[in-house]
Design goal:
2 copies of one chain form a homodimer. Chain A is α/β, with parallel strands linked by helices. Chain A has helices spanning 13-22, 34-42, 53-64, 78-88, 102-105, 109-133, 180-199, 238-248, 267-279, 299-312, 340-343, 353-365, and strands at residues 2-6, 26-31, 69-72, 92-95, 138-144, 159-164, 167-172, 202-208, 210-212, 252-255, 261-266, 287-292, 295-298, 319-322. Chains A and B meet through helix 6, strand 6, strand 7 and helix 7 of A and helix 6, strand 6, strand 7 and helix 7 of B.
Chain lengths: 407, 407
């Protein structure tokens, strides 16, 4: 199967490309290195010293005997994208090539507009390219569980049967996204569903939870293949960031009460879910949605787990509750369904002590690369201009349980 | 009340600006004349010979003694927009300044991307400008009934109470828009709701039905104030287009069976609804939705009404069923609520014989300006490249009742 991975140099895209290649698929990656650029913009870097894409690809070919072709360019450039599709003839396009950080989209107007334009135009281009170049190609698109927000009812996988005034219909699940980034994914979802209907495109929208971990079976074979590990407030996801904080003796930064509950998954399950979607394509014209996560945790629960793991390492790990820079409920009902990928054969890697040990271990190994000034939240949802160099709002932590949010 | 009308030179924006001015509000308009430009692009023109904006405004001041200030520029230019907001200090921003034609958005990829970028960025800019310049300003935003699509349940006004697995919540009504244009309005709605939540903006989203008519009380006072009357397949809405077709002896072009049912309203009700929204603002932080239409009709019903009116004028009006260029259900359940504006005092102008007479009269008066080649649909939802100059698909009409759509 020819699988084209858009955003194949990124945190999820890179391990996905390796996994699919290892599994015998013919893989090519597309990337414009935006993610590496944003590190420069933010003065941040991945905890792990990742190599350049050519170096990574050479190492993979040396180790596995399998070549992954790279196309360098931007999916918002339609000519580039159609040239790639014409040359590679993908059976599946896996689309990770979006700006993926909520805080980045909330920095200011320019970042909000960039995020929505970049993500929406990129996905529109992919849809047009499939229709025009490779109409039977299956689009596997990364959405986010954040599209749903935190409704007071169970979250279904994409659609909900609604009975109303004696009639009923199966309708898209209502969306209540919580940042300009999450909104961009909601826009994508609506655009994709429409194109499936009018053009007979087949698409799988993977509403992914928060990913943790950094190592997969392929990546651990050689240091040159090492994956990103982001710990900064903008791109670092909760569990990874907590592990980096624990490693250097910084308090774990929990926003507000920490009762915010989300779906999480191991990066080894991300790559497997992608393959399961590829191997089990929907029919032409079908738009389907899978909720891609394996367990629910509150942010405070995660922090407490990292605290316990830290003790084993002899680390003194404290938890500090900061004013929540996001506008979100800090205590809410949350029960999201996630059976469709399990039905296709996913065997989840549940969050374990050994995984936490491994993550803290990695963080300790690279602790010299940690810039602690990047831990504290500087992007406040309530401001339209967040100067990330000097925002005094979050300089002082508050005590746990204190009511800090106006939500 | 200072009311800034974005898109104040357009089909709905112009009569709205006049009405609000007549009612004693301090009105300014913003326009970049996109709508006039698209006429040039499409080789089309309004049936009525509209005057330039400066000429219109001079005539209005001469007649009414009231000045309407004009700001010429593009709302996607943030500097321009914030300069206007700083100078005019609006209490309300009425936002019509979007690309509003579904067929225009379906011409090709460039038009799809343009429509979504133009509309989404414009609205994001308006939201940021309100937050940064005039935070208590009320945003009155034009949405569309087309955001809902045609679900098999009653359509509520923006939100629906869902009971599911023993729990319940009031959630955004699921959206199933039917074109890249309608999708852009859905994207806007999600963006607006979010900004109300995080920034305390007050907003009214008016999900407007299909507007018919061209004359309001203000406009009929002087020929110089004459409003647009679009009859082409791209910008001409169903009833107006049928009247122009009847006037010149062209068959009424009904797409498919004509069972497509939508909400409609008289342009005199559009302007009144806008004022009702302005006079009754929501609380800070509230995002509310009104369904702005007064009656439901199927497209075939409208055609039959125009046919009957034509007979009175001695016109021989036939109805032809063309293959539906859109991907839509031609026969479906449709029952949309629309009580909130009536509760605020709207007294609807229901579609009457006299209104139909007046519309056909106007069409007859300007029949020399009709270009009949603009009647036939050339933008097919199923194609990604619609050459509007020569599309043979719709050259030949089919007989009524024939199954012509694959929907």
């Amino acid at each position: 199967m020819n699988i084209l991975v858009l955003g194949g140099d990124g945190y999820c895209g890179w391990p996905t490309a390796l996994y699919l290649s290892q599994r015998g698929h013919n893989v090519a990656v597309v990337d414009n290195f935006s993610r590496r650029l944003w590190d420069h913009e933010l003065g941040a870097q991945t905890l792990t010293p990742i190599r350049s894409l050519p170096e990574r690809l050479r190492a993979w070919e040396r180790l596995s005997g399998k070549a992954i072709k790279a196309f360098v360019g931007d999916v918002t450039n339609y000519t580039f994208l159609t040239d790639v599709a014409t040359e590679f003839e993908p059976d599946v396009i896996v689309h990770f090539a979006e700006q993926r950080a909520a805080p980045y989209s909330m920095i200011d107007r320019e970042h909000a507009v960039f995020t929505q334009m970049n993500n929406v135009v990129g996905t529109l281009n992919v849809l047009f390219a499939i229709k025009e170049i490779q109409p039977s190609c299956h689009l596997v698109k990364l959405g986010t569980m954040g599209e749903y927000g935190t409704p007071n009812i169970d979250i279904e996988e994409g659609f909900i049967r609604i009975v109303h005034n004696g009639r009923e219909d199966l309708l898209p699940f209502p969306k209540q996204p919580g940042s300009f980034y999450h909104l961009s994914k909601v826009h994508d979802s609506h655009n994709i569903a429409f194109c499936c209907k009018i053009w007979g495109i087949r698409a799988t929208d993977l509403n992914q939870g928060v990913v943790y971990g950094t190592v997969t079976h392929e990546i651990e074979q050689d240091e040159t293949l090492i994956n990103r590990f982001d710990y900064d407030e903008v791109f670092g996801t909760a569990l990874n960031r907590f592990c980096a904080q624990a490693a250097v003796g910084h308090p774990l930064t929990v926003y507000g009460k920490g009762g915010q509950t989300r779906g999480f998954l191991d990066i080894r399950d991300t790559v497997r879910c992608i393959e399961l979607a590829c191997l089990n394509p929907p029919a032409r014209g079908e738009y389907r949605v899978f909720n891609q996560f394996t367990e629910q945790f509150s942010v405070l629960q995660l922090a407490q787990m990292v605290q316990a793991t830290g003790k084993k390492f002899g680390l003194n790990v404290s938890i500090e509750h900061l004013p929540d820079p996001r506008v979100e409920a800090e205590d809410h009902y949350y029960n999201a369904k996630h059976t469709k990928l399990v039905d296709l054969g996913l065997e989840p890697h549940l969050l374990s002590e050994s995984l936490l040990d491994s993550l803290v271990n990695i963080a300790v190994r690279y602790q010299d690369r940690v810039d602690q000034s990047l831990f504290l939240p500087r992007v406040d949802w309530r401001n339209t201009r967040n100067d990330r160099k000097s925002n005094p709002t979050y300089a002082k932590a508050t005590t746990a349980g204190e009511r800090v949010s106006a939500d």
